[in-house]
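JOB MANIFEST
job_type = single_chain_structure
chain_count = 1
residues = 205
[input]
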Amino acid sequence: MAHDTVILVFAKAPVEGKVNTRLIPDIGVQAATQLQSDFIHQRLIMLTQAKLGDVMLMCAPDDKQNFFLKCKQKYSIKLRKQSDGNLGERMMNGVREALTRYQYCIVIGTDAPALEAYIIQQAIEVLRDKVNVVFVPAEDGGYVLVGMQQNHDALFQDINWGTTEVMQQSRDRLKEKNISYKALETCWDVDRLEDYQRYLEYTKM
């Protein structure tokens, strides 16, 4: 296990009506809630088996949720409460704290099932090759992974989170600051009904 690396997994607790809300009209509240639980377990299984680095589950609304406490019992992970603020502020604060103790920090969510361990390994290797920032772009214009070896606050500020502009705005921000970065192969995530259907097919493979 690489103890110079931490992987922050940002996750919402699977609370009915609070997760995968864009999917609820199509698949219903129960299926959307179960999907969130499955996503988190799949990510934690993959990461703890791959032993790419320490795994920290960044919990919302807090790290006292029964679901998260059970995850900690089951997997070799640490729990942290997400900070307040928008997604950018929460990621920025998580990365800033992580990089006081680790050399490399990878940030992922839970809704990109095709983000396999070998891709995360590639991202870590990019950082070890002295590139400042690494991304795995999402097909919808966002990204499913960002990694860095020092905190770049500009990357998390004034970004239109949840839109198709996130990846391009992030590239523009890094170019303005003359910060080196590399984007790996694009990955898909689960936001809409067609993504959910793709996920169901993917899990059968």
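[summary]
Helices lie at 24-27, 29-50, 66-74, 87-98, 117-128, 166-177, 193-204.
Residues 155 and 170 are 6 Å apart (CA to CA).
exit_status = 0
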